[in-house]
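Hi support team,

I'm opening this ticket because the web form for multi-chain structure prediction keeps timing out on my end. I have pasted the exact lines I submitted so you can reproduce it. The total is 1292 residues across three entries, so I didn't expect it to be a heavy job. Is there a limit I'm missing, or should I split the entries? Thanks in advance, R.K.
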Amino acid sequence: MAEQQTPEQKARAKARAKLSRKLEGGVPSLRGTLIKIAFLALADAGALFASMLLIAQHQWLYFSVLLGATLLINWVYLRKGNLPAKYLAPGVVLLICFQISIVFFSGFIAFTNYGALHNGSKEDAITSIKLSASVTDTNAPFLYVSPVEDSQKKVAFLATDTTDANNPVIYLGGADWNTLAWHQLTAAELATVKMGPSPADGTEIALSIQGFKTLSMDQVIARQAELSSLKVPLGTNVDKAGFMALDPSATGVQRTFYDAIYNAKSDTFTRQSDGKVFYADESIGFFDAKKGDQKSERISDTGWRVNIGMGNFNRIFGDKSLQKPLLGIFSWTLVFALTSVVSTFVVGLALAFLFNDDRIRGKKIYRSIMILPYAFPAFLSAYVWKGMFNTDAGFINTSILNLHKGHMIPWLTDPTWAKFAILLCNLWLGFPYMFLITTGALQAIPSELTESAMIDGATNWQQFRLIKLPLLLISLAPLLISSFAFNFNNFTVIYLITGGGPSGDPSLRVDAGGTDILISFVYKIAFSTGVGADYGLASAFSVLIFFIVGGISFFSFRRTQFLEDLA
Amino acid sequence: MKILKRTAALAAVAVAATALLAVSVPAQAATSTVTIWGDQNTHDAIFPSLSKWAKTNKITVNYVVKDFGQLRAQSITAIPTGSGPDIIAGAHDWTGKLLGAGVIAPVSLGANAKNFSKEALSGFSVYGKLYGVPSWTENIALVYNKNKVSKPAATTAEWKKAIADGTVEVGFNATNGDPYHFAALDTSFGLSQYKRLNGAWTSQIGEGGANGAKFADWLAAADGGKALNSGNSGDWDTLNGQLQDPNSKVAYWITGPWAISALESDHAYGKPAVKTTALKPSEIGVTVFPSVGGSAVHQFSGVRGYWESVKVPGSAKALVVGKVLNALASSDIQSAVYNLKQLIPANQVSVAKVKDPILLGFGKAGKAAYPMASFVFQDTTWSTLGKAEAAIISGNTQGKTPADFWQAAIDTLQSTIDNS
Amino acid sequence: MTTLNELEPTARVIKQRRMSPLKWVRTLGWKHVVGIAVSLYALFPILYILSTSLTKAGSVSSGVLFSDFFFGNYTALFDPAKQHDRPFTQWVINTVVIASINSLASVFISALAAYAFSRMRFVGRRGGLMTLILIQMFPSILGLVAIYGILSEITKYFPPLGLGSLGGLIMIYLGGSLGGGTYLMYGFFNTVPKELDEAAKIDGATHTQIYFKIILRLVAPILAVQALLSFIGTVSDYILPSVVFNKPEQYTLALGLQFFIDQPYSQNWAMFCAGAVITATPVVALFMFLQRFITSGLTGGAVKG
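Hello R.K., no limit was hit. The queue was backed up. Here is the completed structure from your submission:
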């Protein structure tokens, strides 16, 4: 409408705006200012607190972002004018931090192979492979240990082999082979050893030795990071000879060896048994024998997240096993969303017409009951519907329809019935909302319009078709579009009632169920089926779905009055 | 105005300082606090004895109850960010996925290792390395109502007749099937979920071929798989009710020890509702599976247990977490768990103390059981086999013969596995 | 329309009395038939939950509704001896606290923004509003993963808003509230005549006075609706609390209820339904209490007559 403003109107609007600018903040009340400052102080206090923590942890990047944001917010509120920013700031800050960031996060993931085998960073993968590569030699004896330290506070293991209980053998060794090599105690050393019961189970073991201080349990706990990663070498070449490592409860040590060795310089793992080298393959995120070859042998199934460019999108548009079910799923998604909107709207509209009649007694009671489905938490109702649709034991088949064994309706196990069941349940969930909004919209139609129509001799039906319905549609269009967008991504209903099932063609590599809409299909890719979670592919789908539903909504909004109203 | 601003600034500093003090306190306690993520059932079983043990050892155990279905995914997501648990409690067949995601570390049972069966340990092992601490074991067996069956079916002929007569129930879902319970049937045709080599699973599906065709035909036959009583798609009340109901012909149930407590309480099932009364322990029989197909039955055994987060080794609580894991593996706690919830311990020292005839029956029937595989692609195998079995029983084989349909599903599954 | 009724009650009574039974059936009677039928459809699943919650442990009522009246499930939920394993009473408190804070804060934030969009003209206004609407349509199926990523980063540097904190959960909810709430409110704000603001301005009122003293009072229905919607949304959500919280005594009802039915062999539907009834009661009560506002609130914005 603003587009059609006359120059005169524009000028007046301008003058008005000027006047209002002059007036705003002109005479701020003391109370208002106090409240504003109190709020701002609270926010600044929070920011100050957070920045102290960030400084303490030397997080300069986060600190400067926080500082910048805080200054910006203070500037917005302490400056005169610039009203919109003052009203929008709190919401926009939260929106950016916790909503838009999620969108960007997903968008970013869409270009990676993040998923079951590519779950963490490369460092994480190396840590995991290294941990798995150190193997406890279960054939070697388990030695009871007393962790000790020398005068320089360097830790060593005083270990007792009790395999032959009558003739215990005692060893000592530290982290450095050159200063304190692992060895069986000499007679001279043995003379200084004090024996006693092990704190763990009372077995007679060596508790202390001259020149070393035995660590108490509290000291062991205090130094657990150091102790648990202590590797006492069993030879000059620890890779070949192996090492002694503490068992998790700190009662003993056992020979441990590497069955693969990581070389940080060449970024490779070498398998000890056959000398095979595995390279860090940055294109697929695995340590594998031949770079770039998906099928070549890997040192471990544990990989890391790498950027794979358009890989996920190429799969969506190129992988036949995805494409075959996708078309069906996409059309069902559209049918589901459209039917849900239309059915709830028609039922809601009809009810609104019926009950927009003051002569009906108990109207309020009817209305209270009818909006119950809207008031009841949807995830609870979905569970109930699922139970009621059960073929053999469900309430609908056994009690409402009173069917008998052999004639039961396969509500959730037959693809067609399951679609119908989903729509029926979604109608239940959605009609009260439509009933409410159409009631409101009907009451807002000026009575002069219908009265004049009545005088012109229009029938009720004509009044409805020619006057009320078009008006309703115009005013409710934005809500109907939103409802469409909501149902397009109505994950809860599908997931809780059928889980997308009944399952489709078993000869397809993806599980495309009879009631799967795009979003539930994507969920399966992300979290459950297939060879494991594939967040990358799921994110790529999310991005595409966003463009589809956002696009449809955007153009629909444009076609309605919405944008004109905005101007 | 200016004064106001200054006061506000001062106030802000004061608030920040107090808040800073408040936050810096908990950091010290962290080294002796161990966080476990697990489901409610495990919590109820282990927490009383574990927390008692932890108190005497000055360790705080923070057990976070998570939804069983989301527990694994949440652990996998949370651990790399550094905000995950120190210990995950779950089912042993998660091991492959947890390791593939790089979120668990190898564990060592030290001197206690000799007290665990090879099967229990292999359930938590990948390529011969142990990643988890076994807690309790579960396997299915043939449960029957002694009031209806004096001598349970033992031969192939007796068992086939029992099935054909509709006296056998197994709680499978009409869409998703239940290959875990069906292992009591398909393995008797000489099948196995994966082919076995040197006592371990390979990644070759072992359900196809001529034996697979025989199994598929049997599933589709009116006196075979179709005659199995699904108990209304696995409805718990119906399964319990019809086994208890003296007027129902259902006498056998392919199930596990988890079903027993429910059998020992009242139920109501069907329409019009039939109220049935609890069975006494002495009225419940547990026996080994007879064979339908002629070959030996190898049902699955499942082991519950605990994994250590990959972030723990070398960290400031490495030994504390190790102590908790060792305590969980100890016969003290495992016996306490048995006494509380009647779960069959994995620690053999505790097993020796089990006296309950029903549990001993499950133990005896489980001698031939194989631990479930824990491959990364394990979920796909479960769902594909289950859905194919369910489709064959319901006759929904998309125009193919049952045998062809079964083979097609297996071929796809194998190619999915090979391409992963 | 209530006011209309109050104005002419006698006329209405007289009209109805004069109606012949046949005409009553034709004009109003059938509407009652439809009304009763729809009411049954609406009520039925809820009665089913109520009925199941009154059955003995674990049994899903099959066959006849309300064949049992067993209140043991309800007492068991609040049984002090069981609070250690399942702090149900604490969950009720948490749910009410979180949902209340969230609904108040989200109303505050989105009402501020809606006022700006409705009354002020600034660069990026159109685009901003459109972005708000569209951003809501992003399928946040990876929300779980993303939220872990964001919150665990925050946890490292600022624990009060990180994982395991009430603040973290509220922040995530509020981040989403702007999109949902602002658009709904924007329309309603537009229905308040601008002349009112201008008159007030000329009287020397500041923009905050206009906003808090005039506008907010006039848009009360939509504030109530938005508060209600976000209350329901929070009560129903079990995913986010399970991501953010890591102590059972922090959990909410919707999350805690999952533990009654999360394992295939030990689902306890009766307890679940009893918990569900307790969860739904405050929401339904609030809904009924605010019903007067709902119709006008939901449509006021979209419908300008």
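A quick check on our side: The first strand of chain A starts at residue 134 and ends at 136. Let us know if the file doesn't open in your viewer.
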